Amino acid sequence: MQLKLPxxxxxxxxxxxxxxxxxxxxxxxxxxxxxxxxxxxEESLAVNLVNRDKxxxxxxPEGRAFYPQAQKLLQQSEECLNFFKxxxxxxxxxxxxxxxxxxxxxxxxxxxFMEVHPDVTVSLSCHSSLPLMDRLLAGEVDMVxxxxxxxxxxxxxxxxxxxxxxxxxxxxxxxEFAERVAQLSLYxxxxxxxxxxxxxxxxxxxxxxxxQRSDIESYPLILAAIHQGLGFTVxxxxxxxxxxxxxxxxxxxxxxxxxCDIYLVWRRYTTSPVEKAFLSINAxx
Length: 285
What we know:
Layout: H1 5-17, H2 20-27, H3 31-45, E1 50-52, E2 57-59, H4 61-81, E3 91-97, H5 104-116, E4 120-126, H6 129-137, E5 143-147, E6 155-161, E7 165-169, H7 174-180, E8 185-188, H8 194-205, E9 212-215, H9 219-227, E10 231-236, H10 237-240, E11 250-253, E12 262-267, H11 273-283
Parallel strand pairs: 3-4, 3-5, 8-9, 8-10
Antiparallel strand pairs: 1-2, 5-12, 6-12, 7-10, 7-11
Helix pairs in contact: 1-2, 1-3, 1-4, 2-3, 5-11
């Protein structure tokens, strides 16, 4: 036979009040109900928990040993019932983000979220926009920070942080860059980098063509090559503003290029309480 929580509650009330009558009053039932539940509990455990003395109620040694266990089970059941309540949010939030999105804004949002919801486990992984979108649609992550805007029938998104791109080169002027671009390599951050699509469209619109394109997933290496006059790249302004290796290079804002603002994206129809809590924290910033 299985243990039942009402049996455990009545047993604990009996121990704590010291009588069947007082236990019945505490549990808002009749005394016969207390006696029945105690008997059922003893049958389930195959042991006597109380001595049935007409003068007074006493616990058997087994009853004294079982009382702390019964209290523990009741406490655990209460914790389970409160597990998903808003004031004690639990769960695992899996975030994916572009490297350039991990800036001061995201750090502040995540720190505040972890402070408000300490029982939620947070995981953060980095990748390019296209793989991150694939992982989101496959259910491998819960929310992603990618280049936007994002339009998809099953996804929702909101602007997370504005972003702009700049051409990074060793050339002193845009005129010099236009003259030398055919001898320079275009460096992009991996084949899945969204920025390489934007810069190649921009080059085509300007009727310019690089000597070749190289995918290098290391901004320090890309910048070192540009310092040597080997090529050029495009980088988000938030990265340029915070990277000391940019010193000595020229950064020309590309105002006539498609938007590349950072958007927070999640699945529209299956938003969990944990995801809603993260959205709420972000809205506060």
